Q: What sequence folds into this?
């Protein structure tokens, strides 16, 4: 390669414009200023002993195949465990070899789904706020993202994520003959909204009328609070045949570093995902799959009981959510109480804080940078979860993560250098 080419940008066109990443930027900034990180979504408490013991025993046990490649589309023990669980959850008998795909995290499931189902000329509806990888993944596939925001319907008093709703007319207008898919995240990150059955039925009706697929990101499926119930859109009439449901071992078992996820879908859709998977990742780590399988077998056997981790985890997190909301209110924030997930966005606009910065940057980005540098506290600016036209809807909020033991330091840190 000649020296003249060393400064040339070789990034291929389909990835152009997707190189910036909010996690890279703010995780790096938090590390630089040694800030307490209440932004990035991972717990700082231990995952269940059952899966830790399982992975250790698999690694050191007599079965040498545990350290070798396993089946490309999913370790047999794991896909059988997933099929058994999701047969109950979906109300139908699932074929472990045809209806389940194991992926590198929910992230991998999203990439396989979007890349396998969408292409140039297609449009994909993304509900705002959205997990930030949706937009670049849609663009990389060649499809066009179409954004429809959830909007707050209440501005005073205690505000819940349930108070953020889709405008039925706005959503209906987003569908057309080019609409290939809609990406639905429930419980939603970063808002924590748990879509109610009637809201899902409205979305499902539009999908049926417009022959549209649903990519259902349900990685927070077990994290619901205040008796809110998670409804799987794939269980609604006519929707199994057009839905890919994505789950995550990291979120299910508080082990995000294991980066293991899965997709549940009918064979005609699954073939599209499998094709992408086998030509990119090909296979996921055997040891992790074995351990997750053992964990799922145990929790499926006690599904619905108070001993089940799927119940005990949200029961443990709900008081943390409530205490964080109270603390933020005491500091002058206006928190949006999440129905699910482990994030909370809060309105900081009533704080007496003037922040300078790049005039081309969103207010929430400037505020979060100030918070990191001046108060030693790292959060995430939620305008990163909006398309370009709607970033203003989020620029008075910041996102906190309450699944961390150290979250209570927020009060001490913010007050440390004065208000």
A:
């Amino acid at each position: 390669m000649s020296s003249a080419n060393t400064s040339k940008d070789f990034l291929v066109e389909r990835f152009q414009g997707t190189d910036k990443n909010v996690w890279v930027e703010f995780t790096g900034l938090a590390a630089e200023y040694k800030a307490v990180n209440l932004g990035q979504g991972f717990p700082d408490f231990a995952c269940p002993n059952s899966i830790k013991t399982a992975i250790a025993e698999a690694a050191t046990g007599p079965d040498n195949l545990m350290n070798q490649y396993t089946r490309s589309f999913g370790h047999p023990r794991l896909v059988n465990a997933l099929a058994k669980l999701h047969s109950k959850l979906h109300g139908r008998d699932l074929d472990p070899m045809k209806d389940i795909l194991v992926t590198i995290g929910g992230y991998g499931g999203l990439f396989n789904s979007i890349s396998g189902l969408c292409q140039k000329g297609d449009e994909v509806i993304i509900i705002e706020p959205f997990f930030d990888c949706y937009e670049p993944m849609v663009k990389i596939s060649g499809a066009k993202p179409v954004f429809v925001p959830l909007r707050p319907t209440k501005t005073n008093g205690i505000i819940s994520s349930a108070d953020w709703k889709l405008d039925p007319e706005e959503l209906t207008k987003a569908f057309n003959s080019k609409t290939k898919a809609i990406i639905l995240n429930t419980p939603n990150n970063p808002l924590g909204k748990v879509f109610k059955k009637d809201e899902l039925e409205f979305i499902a009706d539009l999908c049926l009328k417009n022959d549209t697929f649903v990519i259902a990101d349900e990685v927070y499926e077990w994290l619901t609070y205040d008796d809110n119930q998670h409804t799987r859109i794939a269980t609604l009439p006519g929707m199994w045949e057009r839905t890919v449901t994505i789950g995550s071992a990291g979120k299910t078992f508080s082990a995000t570093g294991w980066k293991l996820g899965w997709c549940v879908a009918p064979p005609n859709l699954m073939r599209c995902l499998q094709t992408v998977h086998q030509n990119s990742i090909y296979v996921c780590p055997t040891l992790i799959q074995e351990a997750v399988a053992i964990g799922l077998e145990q929790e499926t056997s006690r599904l619905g009981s108070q001993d089940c981790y799927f119940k005990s985890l949200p029961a443990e997190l709900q008081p943390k959510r409530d205490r964080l909301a109270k603390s933020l209110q005491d500091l002058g924030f206006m928190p949006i109480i999440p129905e699910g997930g482990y994030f909370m966005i809060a309105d900081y606009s009533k704080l007496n804080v003037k922040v300078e910065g790049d005039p081309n940057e969103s207010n929430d980005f400037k505020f979060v940078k100030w918070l990191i540098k001046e108060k030693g506290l790292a959060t995430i600016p939620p305008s990163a979860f909006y398309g370009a036209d709607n970033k203003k809807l989020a620029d008075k909020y910041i996102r906190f993560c309450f699944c961390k033991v150290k979250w209570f330091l927020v009060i001490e840190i913010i007050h440390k250098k004065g208000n």
User: Anything to note?
Assistant: The longest strand covers residues 144-152. The chain has 13 helices and 14 strands. The CA atoms of residues 22 and 126 lie 18 Å apart.
